[in-house]
């Protein structure tokens, strides 16, 4: 692996060793594990308590969920249940229409995408799972395909392909579009990772993760942890534009300006307010946007939030993109835009400097490689979470997921034991993530190489019981890691077989909640992705020293952009948004497609499993069949449902088979792919 920068000094004094993976699992008595059915019932009761409390609050001015200790049950701040947050939103709709949209979402599935072939839905291929968007359209074409989280941006990418651009051009153009349209999840004020595979087999990753400013230190949030999430101190040095330019210079084919023009036009001339964006700005914590002079100008120009379909513009951002398109990224990192951003961040308590901006560099690296189901799987390494995904693939590649009884019918390849083994593997990879960190800041290669070894995979398989699950101590987690959020992902394959998997993010929704007024740039809050010393979690795990703040360091990310290669050709490109749920979402999708023989659409749209070890709960979409829940409880798993209105991971996937390209954008984010 090679890097284009080596500007961080290795941290000293960290001599932690991974616990032996071959040690015998801790023996647990009957009283050490809660009865799964009882625990699951308790979770369901709490969800109904949330619903009733907010239902009452919809008719009164009383915040019922805050009475009698309910706030402690539901959580507060960024931990507040998405279910709770959404139920409070009745503005512009009225209580009955709001509740009906939550409980009985629209079943419409008809969309017109210019130039895109929609795979017909036949009687034998019904829409089974009623997720939020309900489009669930698989698109197809022969010349190129883009799966992004907004229909407009998928189309922007395809238009670039149609005009002679390649997959890198299309990914950059679509990424710029997503940052403007879905500004709650990404944008040029953030960073990310891009994985590129050329038709000749050459593969490259571009690491443009945000960096801690030079004045940052590990104790900077000791007295105010919330400052890592909101405000100027939470802002890390953005890397997205630098990453896009590096990829374009190496592999792009169209003029730089051409990649910006579609989004400039959308933001300058206006577009219909996207449904997902209209929903996100109505979350309770963003109520102040309506009266804020900066946010309100964009999202509430008439004193109320824009409704879906109303004209939406961002002229300041359009001007900024015009400047970058015309003058290149120097204006962003060394020129007028940099000065505006630095001054704004510092006025809001931050430590970002012009030197921080000017010194930003992109790391160009070799991808990680794994084998799964006879295929080569490519992903990106630290501070990406590719190592966690590779660990999961190493375990499952030599594990039979067809043993046991079919869950939905006798011949169902998704078996009870197979699902249990998948979830147990998720718990192991979540434990493995706790030792990851920026490799140029701290050398823990020996530990990482150990968990990626075949011997470690063997020991994990040996410690997975086909009869039960275990307490978290069984899985050798040494440290705690921050629960990460946000993100966008898009996947592209062009007519020549070039493939791109791009994951970008500003972290929490709307990042630091700072929008620079002159440029229209929403700034990230990625300082929150670092671990903070001295904060021991509820389960007694200390924060990971591998992810402590240091000057110039890049925080550990959950991103896992992925490309699957079969017989020398790209077969599938996928990735996810959803913070800590990304690696498990990608693993879940790969297992469904390649081991359980699901269609591309069902692999993405069917109920998704997630377990992050702590808390000890299997999260799954509420569209799940009751038979699946019974199976999980049989093994001792505690189950909680993810409401369709508030999914926490979304997959964008494209697939190539016999000369045809197929793609689907996850309807959980009301997304639609495009092809030609």
From TrEMBL:
Q: Which residues bind L-glutamate?
A: 209, 505-507, 529, 557-558, 579
Q: Name one Pfam family in it.
A: G_glu_transpept
Query: What superkingdom heads the lineage?
Result: Eukaryota
Q: Name one GO molecular function term.
A: glutathione hydrolase activity
The cellular component terms of Gene Ontology attached to this UniProt record, alphabetical and capped at eight, are: endomembrane system; fungal-type vacuole; plasma membrane
To which pathway does this protein belong? Sulfur metabolism; glutathione metabolism
Query: What protein name applies here?
Result: Glutathione hydrolase
- This enzyme's EC code(s): 2.3.2.2, 3.4.19.13
Give me the reactions it catalyses: an N-terminal (5-L-glutamyl)-[peptide] + an alpha-amino acid = 5-L-glutamyl amino acid + an N-terminal L-alpha-aminoacyl-[peptide]; glutathione + H2O = L-cysteinylglycine + L-glutamate; an S-substituted glutathione + H2O = an S-substituted L-cysteinylglycine + L-glutamate
Where's it mainly located?
Answer: membrane
Could you tell me which PANTHER family the record lists for this protein?
GAMMA GLUTAMYL TRANSPEPTIDASE, GLUTATHIONE HYDROLASE PROENZYME 1
Q: What topology does it adopt in the membrane?
A: Single-pass type II membrane protein
Where in or outside the cell it occurs: the entry states: Endomembrane system
Q: Which family does it belong to?
A: Belongs to the gamma-glutamyltransferase family.
According to the record's subunit comment, the protein's assembly and interactions are: Heterodimer composed of the light and heavy chains. The active site is located in the light chain.
Q: Name one GO biological process term.
A: proteolysis
Question: Its biological function?
Answer: Cleaves the gamma-glutamyl peptide bond of glutathione and glutathione conjugates.
Record NCBIfam families: g_glut_trans
Q: Name the keywords, alphabetized.
A: Acyltransferase, Hydrolase, Protease, Signal-anchor, Transferase, Transmembrane
What is the active site of this protein? 487 (nucleophile)
Disordered: annotated span: 1-33
């Amino acid at each position: 692996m090679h890097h284009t920068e080596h500007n961080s000094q290795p941290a000293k004094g960290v001599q932690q060793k991974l616990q032996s993976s071959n040690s015998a699992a801790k023996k647990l008595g009957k009283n050490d594990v809660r009865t799964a059915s009882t625990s699951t019932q308790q979770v369901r009761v709490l969800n109904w308590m949330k619903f009733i409390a907010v239902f009452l609050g919809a008719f009164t001015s009383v915040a019922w969920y805050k009475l009698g200790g309910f706030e402690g049950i539901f959580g507060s701040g960024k931990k507040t249940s998405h279910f709770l947050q959404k139920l409070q939103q009745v503005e512009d709709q009225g209580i009955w229409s709001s509740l009906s949209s939550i409980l009985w979402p629209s079943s419409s599935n008809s969309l017109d995408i210019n130039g895109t072939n929609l795979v017909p839905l036949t009687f034998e291929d019904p829409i089974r799972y009623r997720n939020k968007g309900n489009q669930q359209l698989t698109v197809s074409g022969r010349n190129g395909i883009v799966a992004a989280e907004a229909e407009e941006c998928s189309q922007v990418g395809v238009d670039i392909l149609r005009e002679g651009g390649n997959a890198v051009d299309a990914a950059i153009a679509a990424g710029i579009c997503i940052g403007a349209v879905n500004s709650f999840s990404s944008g040029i004020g953030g960073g990310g990772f891009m994985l590129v595979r050329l038709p000749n087999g050459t593969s490259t990753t571009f690491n443009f993760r945000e960096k801690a400013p030079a004045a940052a230190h590990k104790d900077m949030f000791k007295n105010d942890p919330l400052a890592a999430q909101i405000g100027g101190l939470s802002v890390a040095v953005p890397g997205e534009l630098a990453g896009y330019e590096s990829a374009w210079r190496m592999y792009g084919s169209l003029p730089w300006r051409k990649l910006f023009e579609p989004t400039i036009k959308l933001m300058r001339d206006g577009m219909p307010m996207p449904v997902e964006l209209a929903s996100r700005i109505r979350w309770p914590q963003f109520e102040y946007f309506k009266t804020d002079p900066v946010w309100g100008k964009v999202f509430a120009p008439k004193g109320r939030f824009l409704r879906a379909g109303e004209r939406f513009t961002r002229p300041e951002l359009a001007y900024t993109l015009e400047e970058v398109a015309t003058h290149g990224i120097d204006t962003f990192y060394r020129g007028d835009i940099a000065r505006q951003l630095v001054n704004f961040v510092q006025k809001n308590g931050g430590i970002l400097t012009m030197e921080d901006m000017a010194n930003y560099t992109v790391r160009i690296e070799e991808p990680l490689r794994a084998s799964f189901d006879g295929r080569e799987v490519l992903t990106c390494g630290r501070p990406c979470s590719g190592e966690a995904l590779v660990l999961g693939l190493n375990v499952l590649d030599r594990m039979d997921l067809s043993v046991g009884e079919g869950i939905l019918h006798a011949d169902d390849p998704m078996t009870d034991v197979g699902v249990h083994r998948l979830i147990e593997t998720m718990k192991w990879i979540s434990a493995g993530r706790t030792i990851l960190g920026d490799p140029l800041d701290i050398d823990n290669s020996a530990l990482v190489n150990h968990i990626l070894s075949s011997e470690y995979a063997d020991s994990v398989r040996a410690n997975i019981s086909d009869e039960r699950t275990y307490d978290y101590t069984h899985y050798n987690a040494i440290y705690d890691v921050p629960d990460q959020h946000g993100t966008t992902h898009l996947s592209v394959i062009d007519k020549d077989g070039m493939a791109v998997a791009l994951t970008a993010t500003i972290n929490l929704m709307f990042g630091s909640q700072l929008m620079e007024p002159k440029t229209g740039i929403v700034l990230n809050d990625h300082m929150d992705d670092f671990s903070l010393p001295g904060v021991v979690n509820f389960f007694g795990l200390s924060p990971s020293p591998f992810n402590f703040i240091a000057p110039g360091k890049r925080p550990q990310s959950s991103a896992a952009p992925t490309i699957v290669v079969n017989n020398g050709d790209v077969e599938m490109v996928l990735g996810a948004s959803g913070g800590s749920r990304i690696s498990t979402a990608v693993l879940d999708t790969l297992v469904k497609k390649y081991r359980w023989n699901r269609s591309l659409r069902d692999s993405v749209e069917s109920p998704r499993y997630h377990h992050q070890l702590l808390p000890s709960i299997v999260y799954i979409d509420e569209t799940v069949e009751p038979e699946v829940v019974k199976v999980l409880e049989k093994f001792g798993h505690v189950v909680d449902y993810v409401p369709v209105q508030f999914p926490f991971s979304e997959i964008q996937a494209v697939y190539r088979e016999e000369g045809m390209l197929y793609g689907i954008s996850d309807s959980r984010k009301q997304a639609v792919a495009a092809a030609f």
